[in-house]
Amino acid sequence: MNTATVRAEELSTVDDLTYGARFLASLPLHAHRDPAVLRRWAEAADRFGAELARTPSPVPAHVVERTGGLERGLLARYTSRPRAVELYTDAIAAAERLVARHGWREWFPAGSVRAAALAHEAVHERLHHGPERAALKRALGHTALRLGRLRVPAHVAGAEELAAHAYARTVCGLGRSPLLLSAALAASCTAPAPAPAPSAREK
Ligand SMILES: [Zn+2]
Predict the structure, then answer these.
(1) Separation CA 78–CA 72 (nearest Å)
(2) How far is the C-alpha of 63 from the C-alpha of 159, rounded, in Å?
(3) pTM for this structure?
(4) Which helix or strand (DSSP H or E) is residue 168 part of?
(5) How far is the CA of 124 from the centre of ligand 1 (A)?
(6) How far is CA 20 from the centre of its chain?
(7) What's the CA-to-centroid distance between 158 and ligand 1, angstroms?
(8) Distant-in-sequence, close-in-space partners of 148: CB < 8 Å, separation ≥ 6
(9) How close is the Cα of 161 to the center of ligand 1, in Å?
(10) Cα 3 to ligand 1 centre (Å)
């Protein structure tokens, strides 16, 4: 097996919820949280995103294509002012190449990275403007403040991101969460440069 195959296997044996919990743990705000709590939040956010897919959001109306996603580690980004989605075509193309190289086409059919990125950003748009933001907080059950019988649900950093991934996975019918692609992209950026191929003269 070549290194790419080994790496693909290593990456894909980690399940989606573990990637979700790892993502939360990577955020400075959650650095000291109990891993079991992070896992529970990752599960709740995933469930929320998957359920959101029962009433799909319209694909964002304003899509701007640009490059520069690879150095920023971004496939796409939602901006509320102006209300638009930026799609980073270089990062999307790189993710598609990774899918092909790692043999993950069954999970991510051709063109699905772009579709998933648009679906993901549609959730950010929806949560930014719609009532679902409060519903997500309630689904997570993290309490900011308790005053007698009054419970004020708290924001959980990163939960919206996980919900958006779960939504994209569900509406696009993907075999795995795009979190796997994020992990693979990050790994490919930190991977040592491949050994130089033998030159044509030596063959
Ligand atoms: Zn996002």
Answers:
(1) 14
(2) 24
(3) 0.87
(4) helix 159-171
(5) 7
(6) 8
(7) 9
(8) none
(9) 5
(10) 30
